[in-house]
Specification:
single chain, mainly alpha, 3 domains, 14 helices, about 70% helix
Length: about 270
């Protein structure tokens, strides 16, 4: 909790930085909060950084694109505090030019390799945006799952399930649209779909089971591979389905089925 006196000082110093430092190309915004005395694990509290960033963003909004160089700088050179400030500022800029700043933030997200960086961008920019208009971003999330790396995909699925817990209709539509891509899935996407099914089982077990009921009669190997990757526990009808698949003359289907049977037998 920031005291009222310190809030006033931080806001005053942020405005002063905006008016006197920024026009001269001085981007070292940490001067605003370095004097803050109360540390958390020897670090300036996040609330302080968020207050400073939001104050700066409010002053920048009228000419937001004039400050892209500043945003680039604090992301690159100002450590985790700079990255947090960057995300807070860009989340405000999105209101002014959604398409431009969405792509701008996405570029940083897909280039990020550090978990802390990814979490900041997801938590401050993308999750609030997707939560506000979840149905409009289903295709975006699915395309990102196809294009992202393993670390990013875990975060994208967290977004899906966080939204899905409070919006079952979103989860059903997302599940259906993801399923429409199963037939053309490459090996990496097969794994992603399996991870999705496992996560789905924790959020909506009946919806999860509906996939196994729907594909009881399939003989398409890729569907069986995805369902096998998504197995979480023994169910009698699933076991019977895998026994049937295990008798297939299709080598690829049979291989996936036997893998599934091995898993199910251990959990019977």
């Amino acid at each position: 909790m920031i005291s009222l006196d310190w809030k006033d000082r931080l806001v005053h110093d942020s405005v002063d930085f905006f008016e006197r430092k920024l026009p001269n190309g001085d981007y070292d915004f940490d001067i605003i909060y370095n004097a803050y005395p109360e540390r958390c694990e020897n670090k300036v509290p996040r609330d302080v950084i968020v207050l400073v960033a939001n104050t700066l963003a409010s002053k920048m909004l009228k000419k937001h694109k004039d400050y892209i160089a500043f945003c680039d700088y604090i992301w690159k050179y100002k450590g985790i505090n700079g990255k947090l400030a960057f995300a807070c500022i860009i989340s405000k800029f999105l209101r002014k030019d959604h398409l431009f700043y969405f792509d701008y933030a996405k570029k940083y997200l897909f280039a990020a390799t550090d978990v802390a960086e990814i979490n900041i961008l997801i938590d401050k920019i993308f999750f609030p945006l997707f939560k506000k208009l979840p149905q409009e971003h289903i295709e975006t999330l699915i395309s990102w799952l196809r294009d992202g790396n393993e670390r990013l995909n875990q975060q994208f699925l967290k977004i899906v399930f966080k939204i899905g817990k409070s919006d079952p209709e979103f989860l059903r539509k997302f599940s259906s649209k993801l399923e429409n891509r199963w037939l053309s899935a490459n090996p990496e996407f097969v794994k992603i779909c399996g991870v999705f099914l496992k996560g789905l089982s924790k959020v909506d077990y009946e919806l999860y089971l509906s996939f196994y009921r729907s594909y009881k009669s399939t003989r398409e190997p890729i569907f069986v591979e995805i369902l096998t990757d998504g197995l979480v526990k023994y169910e009698e009808f699933i076991y019977e389905t895998y026994e049937s698949w295990g008798k297939s003359g299709n080598a690829r289907l049979k291989k996936a089925a036997l893998t599934g049977l091995k898993f199910l037998k251990k959990r019977k």
